[in-house]
Each structure stands twice: as C-alpha cells, then as structure tokens.
Known about the structure:
By secondary structure, this protein is of the alpha/beta class. Helices cover 46% and strands 13% of the residues. The protein has 24 helices and 15 strands. Strands 3-4-2-5-6-1-7 form a seven-stranded parallel β-sheet, with helices on both faces. The chain has a six-stranded parallel β-sheet with strand order 8-13-12-9-11-10, sandwiched between helices. Helix 5 links the parallel strand 3 (84-87) and strand 4 (110-113). Helix 1 (2-11) crosses helix 3 (45-55) and helix 13 (336-347) packs antiparallel against helix 14 (352-370). 44% of the residues are buried. The model is unreliable at 543-551 (pLDDT under 50). Bound molecules: adenosine-5'-diphosphate, magnesium ion and zinc ion. Belongs to the helicase family. RecQ subfamily. It catalyses: Couples ATP hydrolysis with the unwinding of duplex DNA by translocating in the 3'-5' direction. It comes from Saliterribacillus persicus. This is DNA helicase RecQ.
Amino acid sequence: xxxxxxxxxxxxxxxxxxxxxxxxxxxxxxxxxxxxxxxxxxxxxxxxxxxxxxxxxxxxxxxxxxxxxxxxxxxxxxxxxxxxxxxxxxxxxxxxxxxxxxxxxxxxxxxxxxxxxxxxxxxxxxxxxxxxxxxxxxxxxxxxxxxxxxxxxxxxxxxxxxxxxxxxxxxxxxxxxxxxxxxxxxxxxxxxxxxxxxxxxxxxxxxxxxxxxxxxxxxxxxxxxxxxxxxxxxxxxxxxxxxxxxxxxxxxxxxxxxxxxxxxxxxxxxxxxxxxxxxxxxxxxxxxxxxxxxxxxxxxxxxxxxxxxxxxxxxxxxxxxxxxxxxxxxxxxxxxxxxxxxxxxxxxxxxxxxxxxxxxxxxxxxxxxxxxxxxxxxxxxxxxxxxxxxxxxxxxxxxxxxxxxxxxxxxxxxxxxxxxxxxxxxxxxxxxxxxxxxxxxxxxxxxxxxxxxxxxxxxxxxxxxxxxxxxxxxxxxxxxxxxxxxxxxxxxxxxxxxxxxxxxxxxxxxxxxxxxxxxxxxxxxxxxxxxxxxxxxxxxxxxxxxxxxxxxxxx
Length: 555
Ligand code: ADP
Ligand code: MG
Ligand code: ZN
C-alpha cells in the first residue's frame, strides 16, 4: 500500500518525497487505525488524508470548520483529476440535494463537509449507506473544549460519527494542541497512543520578535517600506483598529486588504481571494481571518495587539513561511493590551474555572513578552515539545544577547563612504563601493578610487545593506526624499565620524530578515504612483496594477 502511496505522491502531487510525519500518518490510516496527527502549520497535513483517500476504496469524508476554503480544496483535487465535492451552506438546497444524490451513488472519492451537515438525518443516512474509507477531522483542536477555538457544533459531530452503523477509521489533524487538548482528542476519537504522530512544533524558518517601547505605527511603516515586494498579515485587536490601519496603508499607496466579522461575506471573500492570489500585499485582519488558509509565501505576520494566549498566537504567527523560507513573526507589545484582554475574559460568559484558566493562559502570553529567554524555546516549552529546545539564535532575545556588540568602526566606514559619494546614492550602490565591486556604473563614477572602496570586502553586499538599514533605523542616516531613496547623513552621524559617539548594534529594534533589495526603488516609485492615483481619483491600490505582472516586469 505504501508503495502505492509513494506513486501517488509523485504522480498526482509531483513531490519527490514525504515530509516529516506524513508517511507515518498515511501508514496508520491505510492500516485502518484511528490516528491523530499533530504537525505544524504548513507541514502538509492535507496530503496525509489525500493520499489514503486516493488509495483506499470507498468515500473519504473530510470534516472542516472552514467553509470558505472547501471550494478551493475541492477545486485543487479536481484539477488533479480526483472525484471530489463539498456540501455546505454556501450551496442552494437544490445543489445540496444533487450532491447528496451523487454521494449516495458513490460518485466521490472525497466529500468535504461542514460540521452542521451532521444535524441533517438525510446526510447521516446517506453516508451510512455507502462504503467509507475514513472520516477525517481537520483542525481537530476545535472539537476539544480545552482548545482555544472550541466549537460546540464540531464536538456534537463526534457523537454522531461514533454511532454510525458503518463507523470507519477516524483521523484527527491539528497544528496546535496542548497536552490537555491532545488527551481530549485522543479520547474522543478513540486513538491509541501508538497511533499519535507528533512531529513537534518547531518551525525553523520563523524568526520571532517582540517589539516594545516604540511607536507601533512608525515601526510598521518602516518595516513595510523595507518589505514592499512581499505578502504579510497584520493582526489587530478590534474591527475599528483594522479599519484604521487599513485606511492608513491605503492612503500610503500600499496594496492592502482588510478582513473582519463586520464586513459582508462577499467582501470578506473578495479580500481573502485577492490576498491569496497576489504575490505581494498586506492583509489587515482580526483573528477571524486565516484558519486553514494555504498561502505559502506569507513573509511576515505582525501582531498589532496582544493575542489572548500562546496557542492563538502561534497559530496566527505560524501562517508565515509555509513554504519553508525565512519569515518574520513580530509582536508589537504594549502593556495596555493586557487590560483589554482581561476585560474580554471578564465579560465572557465562561464558567468561573474556565475564566481562571483563561487568565493563566493570558499570563503565559504576557510572560512571553517579558522573557529574556529564546522566544522559540519559550513557545516549544509551553507546548511541552519533547525535542531538545535550543536557542534559535535569531529571535529578538537571542540577537539581543549575542549582538550587544560595538560596531563603531564599521559604521564610520559606511558613513564616510556615504559622504565621499556625495550623499547622492542609495544603499545598494553604497554597499557595492564598500564591497569593492567591479560594477560598471560604479567604475564610471570613479568610485573605485575612493579611500572607502573595498573597506568591507569581507562582508556580502546584502550584509552591508542590512547594516545601512540599521543605521537608517537608528537615525544616523536618512533615506532622503527624492524620487529614489538617497542616503544622507544625519547630525548623529557626524558625532560618530568625529569619534564622540559609539554605535552599538541593538538588533532588537529591527527585524533582521531584510527584503531582497532588488528593485526596492522601483517598488517605492510605484507606491508613490499608487498613492497619487488613490488621492486624486480614489482608485484602490489593487485595481491600479496587477502586482504579479509588476513583479514579472521587475525581474
Ligand atoms: P497544513 O499542515 O497547514 O494543513 P497544507 O496541507 O495546507 O499544510 O500544506 C502546506 C503546503 O505544503 C502545501 O502547499 C502543500 O502542497 C505542500 N506540501 C505538502 N506535502 C508536501 C511534500 N511532501 N513535499 C512538498 N510540498 C508539500
Ligand atoms: Mg490544513
Ligand atoms: Zn531565539
């Protein structure tokens, strides 16, 4: 059976090999064992039910709380030539009946179902009357009352499923599960310990940052400017906050979408579709956005406000970097946020002991913002991850420890280079001079005769650019106002050049993963154009240009 699974992996999905955990989960399901898979966001849980669904006879029932994503999932399978469909409230009654009929005729290998369908006897009878390969609960933490996203309707499905006459193998899949939640799911879905696959929670490509004591909006502005050719999500606490941030970026000419429960379903769907299908752009959202969304190239997730607990935080932050490339998870912390979160718990209609528990979870979240431990290690500890937790070396705490280094000399080299180049060039050209590049433009200006030429030849241009960005962030340099960002010395820089001020690398302030520097200038110019058109004619940033085409052009 497993060789068949390997065959499907390559033939249908075009992947060379399984990722960690996948083969094991697939193996258990093929062996008809009830199975629980706990694997991080983006690790490929879907494949764990897709392949058994193709391999085993009968229909696979996939229960998911994410109605808005079912169509995409089904479309993706249909493109691969798989017989799949979905039934949920977005369909008319006639359509639902038609699909129900197809289901009874065993026309599908996969049927995706919203939990509510199980309230219908018609539906339950239909699946009782056909051979089933297995029933999978996607986002299985939603069935546990200890889960941070508990849905009562989801739990009652479990009862119905357990009493089915033709009860098949049961599968639970989730990315976030504390020990309580794991235990709960295991009991509910009757999973043996030996059939639990837990690949741990580590996401090596994510860098975590806590930013405090800064103007949040200014921080974000600066960050976004350096990451304009990327896609990212900003989570805010309230609808009002989402609207405000949206307006702010919209006016700045940044391609931006918003998502919260106050918008109509059509508006939300459109915002989600645009965000998913464009390569770059911002999504400003409340926590209503994102569960199960498979957008692989989200490069950063920022939290403009404190999440209610670590589970929620890790799940939201974990939407960054599903493709495995380096990505940033930035939490902008302000002490006032604690008050709001406490208020929300107080106002909720939870039972007293549940409230106490929520307070404790909030406290762990607050501790995360104050700890000086490695942030990744803190999170893994919280989930009781069994792997040996080591410092990640790239979160704001790790860097802060490692990098309280003096960089005065290097800063002097850069600043004097900027000066000698006449304060007329951007970061990229300055870095080339310091690197000692043979760039034609550089040579035509005679910059290879500068005393600063090649002074930093041991570093990569990227590293030099990164340090220049740091000097900008720390107000030693200004990026200038002209059509292209041109570096100019700030008063502080003169102190450094005179030797009366030292430069320390306090990396905590800047997320270190710099955007690929290429064509930052182009993006900057486009942003200004969008801004102007938006101001003049009220044209939404996205309508103005298809950004993907632009990125192609830029290459
Ligand atoms: P999640 O675990 O969050 O549900 P998904 O199932 O949505 O993750 O998968 C995330 C991404 O990983 C998808 O784009 C998927 O195509 C890809 N993927 C899954 N398995 C593999 C594999 N074995 N090799 C390469 N890519 C994979
Ligand atoms: Mg998933
Ligand atoms: Zn760390």
